[in-house]
Amino acid sequence: MYAVQAVRQGGPEVLEYTEVETPTPGPGEVLVDVKAAGVNFIDTYRRGGMYPMPFPHIVGVEGSGVVAELGEGVEGVEIGQRVAWTDVHGSYAQKIVVKAEELLPLPDGVDFETAAAVPLQGLTAQYLVTDSHAIKPGQTALVHAAAGGVGLLLTQFIKHLGGKVIGTVSTEEKAELARAAGADHVFLYGDGVDIREEVMAFTDGTGVDVAYDGVGKDTFDASLASIRPRGSMVLFGAASGAVPPFDIQRLNSSGGIFLSRPSTQWFIDSPEELQKRAKQLFAGLDEGWLKFRVGQTFPLEQARQAHEALEGRATTGKVVLTV
């Protein structure tokens, strides 16, 4: 079979589409014919060395496909069943082995591209608004990169829970996407734009209840300055680079701010929790209040170009590789 490997630590140029040995499912596992794979910033972090990984490794952590072979002892899964998965290494490939308990059965009408694209970002948005900072009716949230994959989902979850959204984006095209997702106020960040001033003007000087920041270094200070006393700062990514070390006393002087740095491994730590969160995510899609946008698709062999587009912030919605 063919797969995309990061052959060494580095930029998108280290990705190679190459022939590798087809894996075999062990006890409790299944072999899946991959139809699509989601492209995420965590893939670039691991490729670039921010998170320790062995090299070479097959890139990717989520996807969708059709069950092709059952390992010993697998029950409740059928050959030919349509499934998705998340947080499974090696998804940029024609075939992948997944533990049966980690498979997400696909609801009727959900296509493979959407199924491959939504789990990681959708489950992230779900725990951000229910656990990292539980949104309550009437609360206001600042969402950076509001037209990105997580940003669009966050906006819709917050609105469904009765909150208001202030979104930041980089272009007017992206601003329209954020507004269409339900954002109450959207503005472009960049040179000459004071994020705190925009937030304070919209909130009558109060500040937001929570800032959801997946951008990191470029927006962290402005996010912290935009939060009301005893509000929450939820840092869940580093699209612009890691936030430099800072004096924790700033949280006190900013109003007793709660700071968290969540990740999927701590909020989906059992098969039961995975299925519970996935059930709410897919219910939103089934009920229609949650819409998901696949922004760009690339064939598997063009994974390098997909990473370049993602890191260059030249995308809206989710990037997907098709197999």
TrEMBL record:
**Top-rank taxon:** Bacteria
Enzyme class at the top of the EC tree: oxidoreductase
Q: Which GO terms describe its cellular component?
A: cytosol
User: Does Oxidoreductase show up as a keyword for this record?
Assistant: yes
One GO MF term, please?
NADPH binding
Q: Does the keyword Oxidoreductase apply?
A: yes
The record's EC number reads 1.6.5.5
| Domain Enoyl reductase (ER) residue range list | 10-321
Protein keywords? NADP, Oxidoreductase
Q: What InterPro entries has UniProt attached to this entry?
A: ADH-like_C (IPR013149), ADH-like_N (IPR013154), ER (IPR020843), GroES-like_sf (IPR011032), NAD(P)-bd_dom_sf (IPR036291), QOR-like (IPR047618), Quin_OxRdtase/zeta-crystal_CS (IPR002364)
Q: Pfam families per the record?
A: ADH_N, ADH_zinc_N
Database matches in SUPFAM superfamilies? GroES-like, NAD(P)-binding Rossmann-fold domains
Q: PANTHER family from the entry?
A: QUINONE OXIDOREDUCTASE PIG3-RELATED, QUINONE OXIDOREDUCTASE-RELATED
Could you identify this protein by its name?
Quinone oxidoreductase 1
Species in which this protein is naturally found: Brevibacterium ravenspurgense
Organism placement in taxonomy:
Bacteria, Bacillati, Actinomycetota, Actinomycetes, Micrococcales
